[in-house]
Amino acid sequence: MGIHPTAVVAEGAVIPESCTVGPYCTVGPDVVLGERCELVSHVVLDGHTTFGDDNTIFSFACLGIAPQDLKYKGEPTKLTLGSNNSIREYVTISRGTVGGGGETKVGSGCLIMAYVHIGHDSKIGDGCILANAATLAGHVTVEDYAVVGALNPVHQFCTIGKYAYIGGGTTITQDVLPYSLTSVRRENRAFGLNRVGLERRGFTPDELKQLRAAYRLLQVSKLNTTQALEAIREKVKSGEFGERVAYLAEFIAKSERGVIK
């Protein structure tokens, strides 16, 4: 409990005795913390920002900062957060703008993971999870218990419905249906052998030849993965393929999620 001597807390900030303000935090004059909030270290709280109780804010998060909007001219807009939120490293949450209603709002019981950005005038409900580097433009609404996946950019004015789940790496440009599982198509494939990289690591021409042959069995033949693995193992057993290919076969055999071919 208490305020670390290296923290800078402006006159006017409201910090209950039950709170912890860690090293090198900066708290502005219009910030109000609820009971038992913890600022781990190097946290920046700015603007007219109000917290509920039992929030934990990790290092280098910047909350209540000025919106990234050229129309913003320093008006006293707000950021309001509920209780029991975990806000991880390097999260940025902008306060609102006059044109957007003047308030950015985060509910209670949310997990906001590292590098998330919540733009001005956005509204986040209760129990939401925003995974690493999810990026919400201004005026986005995320309804209760929705999950926004890692590396998801969300366009301005989009609404993500209650209990929706958005897979990682999905770009959102329209509203997301409540209860839905929404994800970009995944069409990854392996484009053959990393020949140049392997040569630089000292793989011999014979090792590269063996690996190319193994990859042909895996990718080009009409064998499915199980059949291709069996064929590769037979060639390892016979001595036609060496330890490099043996490792490839072991990797495929141990895979629990399947391999990209």
What features would you describe in this structure?
The structure is a single chain. It is built from four helices and 25 strands. The chain is of the alpha/beta class and 261 residues long. It folds into two domains: 187 residues, Hexapeptide repeat proteins (UDP N-Acetylglucosamine Acyltransferase, domain 1); 60 residues, Udp N-acetylglucosamine O-acyltransferase, C-terminal domain (Udp N-acetylglucosamine O-acyltransferase, Domain 2). The chain has a ten-stranded parallel beta sheet, with no helix packed on it. It is elongated. It starts with a strand and ends in a 7-residue tail after the last helix. The mean pLDDT is 96.
Largest sheet entry: 10 strands, parallel
The CATH topology of the largest domain is what? Answer: UDP N-Acetylglucosamine Acyltransferase, domain 1
- Secondary-structure content class: alpha/beta
How many domains make up the 3D coordinates? Answer: 2
Tally the helices: what do you get?
4
CATH class of the largest domain: Mainly Beta
Mean model confidence by pLDDT: 96
Spans where pLDDT lies below 50 across 5 or more residues: none
Would you report the number of β strands? 25
Strand content: 15-25%
Q: What is the CATH superfamily label of the largest domain? A: Hexapeptide repeat proteins
- Architecture per CATH nomenclature, i.e. the level-2 architecture of the largest domain: 3 Solenoid
Q: What is the succession of H and E elements?
A: EEEEEEEEEEEEEEEEEEEEEEEEEHHHH
Q: What is the oligomer described by this structure?
A: single chain
Report the principal-axis shape: elongated
Helix content: 10-25%
Please give the radius of gyration in angstroms: 26 Å
Largest sheet: spatial strand order:
1-3-6-9-12-15-18-21-24-25
User: Terminal Cα separation, in Å?
Assistant: 54 Å
